[in-house]
Amino acid sequence: MCPLPLLAAAVAASRTPLRLLGRGLAAAMSAAGRLKSVDYEVFGRVQGVCFRMYTEGEAKKIGVVGWVKNTSKGTVTGQVQGPEEKVNSMMSWLSKVGSPSSRIDRTNFSNEKTISKLEYSNFSIRY
């Protein structure tokens, strides 16, 4: 015979539609998401406008890892890694927002791939 607390839990669970349980599992798996890595280069007025500092701040706010640095060509380049949805949010920010004084003409993304583990433990500015 089933102990009373277990019996009560079994009865309650039997009343929960399976499709709701499935949706919860799918949402949990989606939230964890696959890990994604992408390289980027941002063109426009992106140097001398605190672009790297704002990029680092946004990356930490979103919860992605990687790096950012100025190039000798006057662009900003870097790499972002993290859960797919978060990397996609950062890609959008790099394409459309940037720092308040910046002007983004275009952003090129390359080497976009799924990864099995993160290569960085934080987001940093490189020099």
Automatic annotation (TrEMBL):
<dbReference type="Pfam" id="PF00708">
    <property type="entry name" value="Acylphosphatase"/>
</dbReference>
<dbReference type="GO" id="GO:0003998">
    <property type="term" value="F:acylphosphatase activity"/>
</dbReference>
<dbReference type="InterPro" id="IPR036046">
    <property type="entry name" value="Acylphosphatase-like_dom_sf"/>
</dbReference>
<protein>
    <recommendedName>
        <fullName>Acylphosphatase</fullName>
        <ecNumber>3.6.1.7</ecNumber>
    </recommendedName>
</protein>
<feature type="active site">
    <location>
        <position position="52"/>
    </location>
</feature>
<feature type="domain" description="Acylphosphatase-like">
    <location>
        <begin position="37"/>
        <end position="127"/>
    </location>
</feature>
<dbReference type="InterPro" id="IPR017968">
    <property type="entry name" value="Acylphosphatase_CS"/>
</dbReference>
<dbReference type="InterPro" id="IPR001792">
    <property type="entry name" value="Acylphosphatase-like_dom"/>
</dbReference>
<keyword id="KW-0378">Hydrolase</keyword>
<dbReference type="InterPro" id="IPR020456">
    <property type="entry name" value="Acylphosphatase"/>
</dbReference>
<comment type="similarity">
    <text>Belongs to the acylphosphatase family.</text>
</comment>
<feature type="active site">
    <location>
        <position position="70"/>
    </location>
</feature>
